[in-house]
Structure formats: structure tokens, C-alpha cells
Write the C-alpha cells for this entry.
Amino acid sequence: MRVLIAGCGYVGSELGRRLHAQGHQVWGLRRNPSDLPDGVEPLAADLLDPELARVLPPAEMVVYAAASDGGTPEAYRAIYVDGVRNIVTQLHKRDGPPVERFIFVSSTGVYGDADGDWVDEDTDTEPDSFRGTEVLAGEAVTLAAPFPSLVLRLGGIYGPGRDRLLRMVAQGQARCPGDGPIWSNRIHRDDAAQALFHLLQIPDFKPVYVGVDDRPTPLCTVYREVARMLDAPEPEVDPTRGRDRSNKRCSNRGLRESGFTFQYPSFREGYGAMIASGEAEG
């Protein structure tokens, strides 16, 4: 495969590393691509450049994994809607092979609050913030593209270098929600990257997949289990904590049925591996 990763950041870099290791040609597009993994060909470009077609490589597969560099509605719209629309347009008019597959890395935030119920690929999307609204608009642009396209909705991504939760628990700063279970939906970075690799290869694919591990877990259970693994004090309960979080349990049924298997099927294996490697120390 020849693969372009547009917005080659935390997950995209790991995907690029895996693609290269398997003998595929891969380009990483970023405004500053100086720290990409070995084997990923750097491509310095802006996703909003109206002349982007001039520098796009001859990749048949494209993964759009860009992240917003700001927390405003304008910043979200720029990267998740305008950027997607621009690269779809530029890919369509560039010189080179036709795009065989375009994957947009989305978010489970497009669902909004489900009052703790299950959501999956068939659940209506009712985002409760501008973040979910703009990402959902990017999905619509993707699925209307003039070439085969699909969406992967990732849950909360953690992994090497993203050890904030471990440190919060280790330092006694984590607080359990006090008003019923607030469900968390996670995926390890390595599983997120491998899921994208998997979706680039399967012959038949659906328009939407949910990328979370096997076990949505109440946030307090995560804190307490991580505290046990770290031999740290059990987190206290804060009655005001969690009231501003959307509450849902995300199902990975579609991804599982496509043949994907997880290296880290729950937070226990994922955080356990991070703890064993020395993260959260110091």
C-alpha cells in the first residue's frame, strides 16, 4: 500500500511506524513534520492550503487523523470540516492514482449524552457540544466524498506519554464522581493505530466503526483499580464531579465483527503495561 496520513500526530505516527515496518510506503503530512518515525516520509503542508494538490503524493490510501490546535468552535471547524473538505477536493483533482480508501478519524463525542445507555454504529448522533457537532460535520463531508470512505469514532486515547490519569491517581488528585456511575470509553494508542491499519486492509467495510476497547467502565472503577495497581490511596468521592460529562457505554461490535482483535481489551491491560514500563514514576 501507499498511504498518506494527513495530520500525522499521536495515533498517526504509530500507524505510520507500523505501516513502514510491514513494507508499505507512507507519508506523514504535518505543518512541521520534523519528528516523524523513521521510514515515514515527511510532507510539510497545511491542510487548508487551496493549492494542496501540488504536493500530495501518489497514495491510494488516505487517513485523516488531524487534531484541532485550539478549543474554540472556529478551530474545530477549521480542522474537522474545512480541512477535510479541502483535502477531499485536492485529492480529487490532483495528478496521480485514484483514492481507493479514505478514513476519517472521528470521535465518540458525536453521540452526546446517553444517560449511561449503550451506543453503537447504528445509534442516532446527537452531540451535546460544538466539538461533537463539528466532528459530525466532518463525518458528513467524508461520507459524501467521491471515493470510498469510512469513519472510525475513537474513544478516549491513552498510551505511552499520555499518563495524566496515572499521575493523578498516584498523586492522590483523582476524584470519583459522586452522582451515580459515569462511564468511560477508552482505547490504547496502539490499538487505535492497529484498527486503522486493519480498516485499510479489509476488502469490505462499513461506513462507520466505533473504536473503543471491550469494556466501558465506570470512571470511579478505573481510578480505584489503577490505585490498586500503583499501590496508591483509594480516590475520594467528589459529589460535584462528573456532572458535566456525557455518560454513555460505547460498543465496539462493528470493529470486532470485522475481524479486529485488541492487544489491550480493557484499561487494566493498557494501564498495566504502562505501569510496568515505568510511567507515572517520578
User: Anything to note?
Assistant: The radius of gyration is 19 Å. The helical segments are 10-21, 73-93, 130-143, 164-170, 189-201, 219-230, 253-257, 267-276. The chain has a mean pLDDT of 94.
